[in-house]
Every structure is written in C-alpha cells, then in structure tokens.
Specification:
It is built from 16 helices and 9 strands. α1 (28-39) links the parallel β2 (20-24) and β3 (43-47). The chain is an alpha/beta fold. It is globular. α9 runs parallel beside α10 and α11 (222-251) crosses α16 (314-323). It has helices at residues 28-39, 55-60, 68-73, 84-95, 111-114, 135-143, 162-172, 175-178, 185-200, 202-217, 222-251, 254-267, 270-284, 287-297, 301-311, 314-323, and strands spanning 5-6, 20-24, 43-47, 64-66, 77-80, 104-107, 125-131, 150-156, 180-182. A 9-stranded mixed β-sheet has the order 1-9-8-7-6-5-2-3-4.
C-alpha cells in the first residue's frame, strides 16, 4: 500500500488565519520555522529567555519577541523548538501554566510526548510537524521556492481543529511544497532516533572513522585516506539523493559497482543487522531515552568526554587542514564545546 502524501492543495492556510503562533526557541529549527511562518503571512511571536542573545536577531528579522510565558499567553498555537532534554523544564515552568484553553501545542519531534515527559492537560490539542532536514536547509530551500519534506501527526484533537491547523502549519513553513506524510508520535520518535543512530549520524560517523583508521594504520597518507573515506562521501550521497541507489550505481564505475555488490555486504553484515535490531529495541522500550535523560541530569559527563574524544580525532584534524584550502566549500570549523545554533548545524532544538 502506497503511503498518502499531502501537498499544498491538501492544506488550508485559512486554518491559521487570525491565529498567533508562538515559536519557543530560536536555534537551528526555531529560526527557520519563525522566518518561514512570518514570510507566509502568519502572525508570529518568538518566546525567549530575557537573557537570550537571539532576541536581537528576532527583532532584526521584524518578528516580535517576548518572554516565553508572555509569548505562550498570547498564542493560539505554541511550537516548542528548544532541545529535547530542555523541553520538560520549560514546559513545566513557563509553557504549561500559560496555555490558552483550546490551544494547539506542537512539537517537531515526538520524544517528550512519546516517553511521557510532557503530558498536556485535557482540552489542549497536541500536534507535530517534523521536517526531514536541518533548520538551515528548511530555511534556505524555502527561500529558493522549494520545501523540505516533513512528517505530521496529531496526538490529541480536543477541539476538532488540530489536524487542519497542523497541516496549515506544515504548509506555512514550506513542507507541503515537497510533501508531508502522516504518522504517529510513536512512529516518528522511534524511526527518527533509529535513523540517526544507525545511519545518518552514528552509523556513518563510525564507518568513516573505521575506514579512515584502517587506511592510515596500513601506512597510507592520512590526507589520501580523508579524501577516500570522507570527502567523496558527499558526492556519492548526492547521487543517492537525486536518484536512489540505482542512480549512484549508474554514475560510478563498473569496478566501484562490483565492489559495492561483493564487499558492501561483507562489511555491513548480518552481525550489523542484529546490532541494529538491538538498538531499535532499546529505542522502542525506552531504555535509550532513560539513559539519555539520566546522562543530562548528571551533567553530561560521558557526552562531553565522547564529544571531545571525537573532536580531536585525526580525521577531523586532517580534514580541517584540507578544507581550509578549499574556500569554495565555505568550510566551517567547529570549536570544542561550540553551541549548535551558532553554526547552523542539524538538530538544534528538537530537530
């Protein structure tokens, strides 16, 4: 059965007419949502802490900014776009007590609803629009006239209007230009975490590092190893992005394609599949979420150690040197401990 995709014609912008949308947070996702909504004609207010350095950026963009509680009190729709681990505290102290009756509370990732960290009261609609891309792309693609695909879901429709408003929100940030897929909070949360860990972030980073280390340990130049295992990866992924695995295989040499078929399954073998199943089980049963919450409550000692360890990896040091000579890449060097939003990185808030 083919999943139904929803596009501009399936979303009625009138569902948000006369409504005020509060965007809580102004990081990677927050700035993109706020600016896209604003340029789509939606009345937007951004909720930030009084000390936030982002307040000036919001005002420069011609958007109202207010303390979080004040922004929530003034809004019909509230989208929480602060990091997953910060959402509960912000909700408990500033959002929950100030929600209007019948308001729509929105998320860009189902983590806190699915794992019961946030439980809005009866009478509050709960929805989600989860763009399938980082905030800086959500913004730049919108500006270019396109859109980033998204998932949408309604967890609670107390007013009977939640679905229409959620779809209208997806349209206003440009997602229905590319298409949005209906899902549930559970499905989005579990597949998103699994995708990040198995392929998009964890699996890819581990594969790159291991391949790089294998070549360097065999005596090959680190710079050559960098080009072969990291730099060219973008070129291959771009082919997949445009035309799937078939187009990638069509575009590379027959030798590369043959190596794909005979060596790929030896490297990513049945043991990897079994590990992937275990990772998925830990996501589904909540144990990954519990460990991540505990890590944050303890002050992130392991997270900080692992971040520093990988920040100083040889592939990063070699890559930074090589990229510095390629100005056309617009290279970015992330300093140890640098905040995500300051470099427009993927993630940033909920997604």
């Amino acid at each position: 059965m083919t999943a139904k995709m929803y596009y501009d014609n399936d979303a009625d912008p009138a569902a948000l007419a006369g409504k005020t949308v509060a965007i809580i947070g102004y990081g990677s996702q927050g700035h993109a949502h706020a600016l896209n909504l604003h340029e789509s004609g939606v009345d937007v207010v951004v909720g930030l802490a009084a000390s936030s350095k982002s307040r000036a950026l919001v005002e420069d963009a011609g958007i109202r900014v207010a303390d979080v509680a004040d922004a929530v009190r003034s809004a019909d729709v509230v989208m929480i776009l602060v990091p997953d681990t910060a959402q509960k505290a912000v909700y408990d102290t500033e959002i929950g007590p100030n929600l209007r009756p019948g308001a729509l509370l929105m998320f860009a990732h189902g983590f806190n609803i699915h794992f019961n960290r946030i439980d809005p009261p009866a009478g509050i609609d709960v929805g989600m629009v989860a763009p399938k891309g980082p905030g800086h792309l959500l913004r730049s693609v919108y500006q270019a006239g396109g859109g980033v695909p998204a998932l949408f879901a309604v967890y609670r429709d107390a007013t009977g209007t939640a679905r229409a408003k959620t779809l209208a929100y997806a349209r206003a940030i440009g997602a229905t230009r590319a298409g949005v897929l209906e899902t549930t909070f559970a499905e989005e949360t579990e597949t998103d975490l699994f995708g990040e860990q198995s392929v998009l972030c964890g699996g890819t980073a581990a594969l790159v590092k291991m391949a790089f280390e294998t070549l360097v340990e065999a005596g090959y130049q680190p710079e050559l190893a960098y080009f072969e295992t990291l730099h060219e990866l973008k070129l291959i992924v771009d082919l997949m992005y445009r035309g799937g695995l078939n187009f990638m295989r069509f575009s590379v040499s027959d030798t590369a394609e043959w190596g794909d078929y005979v060596s790929g399954p030896r490297i990513i073998d049945s043991h990897v599949r079994e590990t992937m199943k275990q990772v998925l089980t830990e996501i589904q049963d909540g144990s990954f979420a519990a460990r991540w919450i505990t890590e944050n409550e303890a002050g992130r000692p392991n997270f900080d150690r692992l971040r520093q360890q990988d920040h100083d990896h040889l592939v990063e040091r070699v890559g930074a040197s090589l990229r510095s000579q390629m100005a056309f890449l617009n290279p970015i060097e992330v300093k140890a401990g640098q905040a995500q939003a300051s470099v427009g990185a993927p993630g940033g808030g909920s997604r």
